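FW: tagging you since you asked about this chain on Friday. Here's the raw sequence from the shared folder, copied in full. Didn't touch anything.
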Amino acid sequence: MSVKIYTEEKFQEEIVLRYTDIIGEKLGGKVIAFSDEWFAKAENLIKPKAPIRDATRFTYAGAWYDGWETRRHNTEEADWVIIKMGVSSASLIGAEVDTAFFNGNHAPHVSIEATVLSDDSLYEDPSIKWDTIISKTECGPSQRHFFVRDSITEEKYTHVRIKMYPDGGIARFRLYGTVHPIIPNDISTLLDTASAIQGGVCVSFSDQHFGSADNLLLPGRGHDMSDGWETKRSRTPGHVDWALIKLGFPTVVKQIVIDTAHFRGNFPQSIKVEAINSSEDKPNPDDEKFEEIVGVSKTSADKEHHYIIENQDKVYTHIKVTMIPDGGIKRVRCFGTLHV
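HL: got it, structure written out here
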């Protein structure tokens, strides 16, 4: 298996908009073990916000860094961090390793491995087999690195281990793949198939100036405006913003929920929701086959808006949420039954 080095633009188009960051803190990823974190904590690796630098800030251990940094002179081959995915399991395709602000103390090389653990504590078991996802690859100082496999793994994993050789610092770590949710025995159970935990992916959007569109698919109602989707203020008559979501399963949609939690002076004036059944991962957002399932509806601040889809038995693979004219939405839920 060879590793391809992508540009940021290519990685965004081919990986970020097709797959899910399955280790991110905002999706429930969690650091469960590490070899060392003397200068800066391993948990910073999966923080959602971009790293920052304050050269005037020092701690007991030394200079403060917004990332993971270990001691010098590691006597082992590599330092490592083990992360439990925020989803039940996933197949893996690529990663971003960001060494922002680590210059002279960055990780010279990294590798990424994955395994399946039925219990977090089993990582210490020497018989556990770790599969190589990204082989040992060189890193440079203070830059974002985009590593992609030739193909997505056939195996489904629950835990991942990043290694840096021999020591140093990494600011952020993102790992992308396809989520494999647990299908209920009773397929008439209503599920939120837009949720990232159920395999939903935001495959395109008009704008995400203030907040990422993939936040729409996260669990919970978040903690402030920063973990929602928010666009620029529009000045053009007739302007709208939109996000196109690929559902985790083909779905008979029964209910849509639009949550404007924490958006109080910047919620959209109105929304509408359309849906399509498409064989494409990313259908054209202007495709005439989109059908309106929620008509233009006024919204209000800091509230969950529920829309029941009456007398509907059609199967859809994608929904398109439109804000009129712009603003912010915290979460989108698409409840329905699976078509499997």
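FW: The mean pLDDT is 96.
HL: agreed, and The longest strand covers residues 241-259.
FW: great, closing this out.
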